[in-house]
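Hey, resending since the last one bounced:
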Amino acid sequence: MSTYVVGDIQGCFAPFKNLLKKVKFNPDKDRLWSVGDLVNRGPKNLETLRWFYDHRDNVTMVLGNHDLHLMACSAGARRPSRKDNIDDILEAPDREKLIEWLHFQPLAHSEDGVTLVHAGIPPMWTIQNTLDRAWEVENAIQGARCKDFFDEMYGNEPIVWDDSLSGMTRLRVITNYITRMLANKSQVNFAGRGNPFGGGFPDPPRLASHADTFGSVLTRPPPACQLNPLSLSNTVTSASPPSLKRCK
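The C-alpha cells again:
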C-alpha cells in the first residue's frame, strides 16, 4: 500500500488523473491525501469533487480557501464572482450530497507524526493548538448556523493571533492562518487572497516522488511538471499547484 499527497487541483481533473495513472494509483489499496482547493479555476470542478466523494474511503483531505468559498456560495452567504467557475457544482443534481460531504472535512489532520493543512501553521501554535483551533472552525461549518460563519469569514483582520480573541473574529483569523497564510520573513501576509481567489487558471499539476518516510515539512515542488524529489519535515502544506508525493 502507498500513500500519496496531492496539492491544489482546482478543477484540473485531466492532469490530476494523469498523475494518478503515472504512479499507478490503486484505489483498492492506496490512499490519497489532499491539501484541499479541489475546485475553482480549472474546467472540471464537478468531476473533481465527484471523484473525491466517490473515493472518500481512500481519501484524507483538508479544506482550502476555495473549498470554503464554494460552501459559502452554496449556503447563500456569497455570490460567485466573475472569476469563479463553480456553477457546474452549484447547478449539479447531486450538489447537496457533495457540499454536505465537504462540510464534514477538517481544516487540519495529523497522523503518524505528519500534519496536513492547506496554507500553513503560525509559529506560535503547537500542532495540538492547530488541531484544537481547526476544530473550532469545523464545529461552526458543521453546525446549523454555518451561514453565520460564512457571512463573517471574508476579510484580512485581524492579522495577529491573540488567545483572547473570541466569536467570529477568532474563527476568521484561525481560518486565515490555516487556509490563506502567506509567510514573508517574520510577517504573515494575506495580500492577494482577501478575495481569496486570484485570476487565471492554475499551472499544470506537478508530480514528485520520494521513497523516504515522512520527516517534518513537505515543501512545495520545484516549478516544473516533472518527477522531482521533495524535501520533508512534519507539516504538509500547499501554496502551489498540484503535486503528488509518495509517502510510504
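Residues 111 and 167 are 29 Å apart (CA to CA).

Sorry for the duplicate.
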